[in-house]
Give the backbone structure.
Amino acid sequence: MEALIETLLHAASPAPALIATASAAQIAASPALVGALVVLTLVNLALVIAALVSLIPRPAAGVRFHNKWVWALLIVLVNGIGPLAYLAVGRLDVPLPDDSGAGDIPPAERARRAVELLYGPPPEQP
């Protein structure tokens, strides 16, 4: 009796058969498709990282619409298009703030100061 009911249900509703076929097709995905999906995922991740690295130090006046939070959400939540939109049209040509305080200091002096800052002053010569 249960076998008859099961047969009637499957005959009346083709959806379970279609679902079973679709899941079998998805499981047997070709290696080329899997490779393409991996590459696209890595490209998207690289775009998100590049866009966020560009957005974070930029002042609010340096982005279109002057709202960094909206751009950050767009970059993170809209895969592919969000980072491309920010990198293409979201950035404005505003000089980034210079936190080094270097100004007009020659490069050799800046390097000497950086070495002293990292490793301390040089030992005194006898």
